[in-house]
Amino acid sequence: MLKRNDLFPDTVCEIGCGAGAILEQLQLQLDNNCVFYGYDISPQAIALCLNRANDKLHFKLKDITKESNDDLFDLLLIIDVVEHIEDYFDFLRKIRIKGEYKIFHIPLEINVLRVLRGYPMINSWKNSGHIHNFTKETALQSLVETGYEIVDYFYTCNFKRLYIKYWKTCILQMVQRVAFAIHSDLAVRLFGGCSLMVLTK
After folding, report:
1. Where does the pLDDT of residue 3 fall: very low under 50, low under 70, confident under 90, or very high at 90 and above?
2. Phi and psi (nearest 5°) for 162?
3. What are the domain boundaries of the chain?
4. What architecture (CATH level 2) is domain 11-157+194-200?
5. What is the SS3 assignment for 165-182?
6. Is residue 150 classed as helix, strand or coil in its secondary structure?
7. What is the DSSP letter of 80?
8. DSSP symbol at 161
9. Each residue of 108-121: pLDDT tens digit?
10. Which residues form the Methyltransferase domain (predicted)?
11. Exposure check for the chain: N or C terminus, fewer CB within 10 A?
12. Residues 17-49: b if buried by 16+ CB within 10 A, e if exposed
């Protein structure tokens, strides 16, 4: 996403950084002068980050929505976070002013197959804490409604590699791949298997 939009940030902040692996990998890819910050409200997550910290990679056990707005980051990363936030509209409004560009990664968990089966959506709630579900359209509109300008977006798909442990899953993934190649939007609406990567201002 950064390369295809010619973005070269000097400061990057990940909100909900978890164990810090994304920032660690991103530091290897971007300019050596870029400074990285990871925020998380989980003490356990921040504890896992400590061995990744260095002079230009910092982790904070804080709620960034309650921090002052003095620091403006070049880029915010919000990766697989929105679906966990109870009042995600309030969250989106509060973080919007904290960075010039923002990259969101949002699972698209509403599709025909899931609705027909029923239980996967409840399992996602119970097992992964995904209390909100999105389509491409509702994800993008949620960002627009909270003041974001959509710059770019694309699907990220979990069926690119065949999962062959269970034959039913393998067949479904092959169907997803063929359908996606023919009509990506329709394939995602029918079969799912994708998230949305969105660049905003």
Report:
1. very high
2. -70, 130
3. 11-157+194-200
4. 3-Layer(aba) Sandwich (3.40)
5. CCHHHHHHHHHHHHHHHH
6. strand
7. S
8. S
9. 999 898 888 877 77
10. 11-95
11. C
12. bbbbebbbebbeebeeebbbbbbbeeeebbebb
